[in-house]
Design goal:
- The chain has 87 residues and is α+β, with helices and mostly antiparallel strands.
- It contains one helix and two strands.
- The chain has a two-stranded parallel sheet.
């Protein structure tokens, strides 16, 4: 995984960047890894077929962990918008 490197004498970017150096402005947190709406853009049937193995409960973030992730991202920039979705 690439990380952003700030060289001596450079100031940090005003907007956080992802590993492709694109500005982060949206964070979408899914509360569940499965959804009962089955929208084709986020859960295409060719990938999420009937035999697809979803994450087990211990592998998913707890609500406390989701809140922690949101708090960390909020500190990165006040212009980051957060969306919470779930099944």
């Amino acid at each position: 995984m690439k990380t952003n490197i700030i060289r001596f004498g450079e100031s940090p970017p005003s907007v956080p960047l992802d590993r492709h150096r694109r500005p982060l402005h949206d964070l979408c947190i899914s509360v569940m890894d499965r959804c009962n709406f089955r929208c084709p853009y986020c859960m295409p049937e060719e990938k999420f077929h009937k035999g697809f193995k979803f994450l087990r409960r211990p592998e998913r973030l707890s609500f406390d962990e989701i809140i922690r992730v949101a708090q960390v991202f909020r500190r990165l920039g006040e212009k980051i918008e957060m969306y919470y979705i779930g099944g």
